[in-house]
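Continuing the batch. This is chain 6 of the set; chains 1 through 5 are on the previous pages. Same settings as before, nothing changed between runs. Recording input and output for traceability.
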Amino acid sequence: MSNALTDHDQSGQTEDSTFFGDILTEANRRWRRMGVRRTDRQEMLTELKDELSAADADG
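Output for chain 6:
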């Protein structure tokens, strides 16, 4: 069985880290367009990253 946390693509990134990076990038882009301050975006991105990591760990 394949585990996305250990399956690396040719760039050396895992599939999940690439997927999570895409989510974080899109969230940051949308929040920026909505006028959310940089410091608030950084805090929200940290929280989102933690939530995604916890959800991934839960399966």
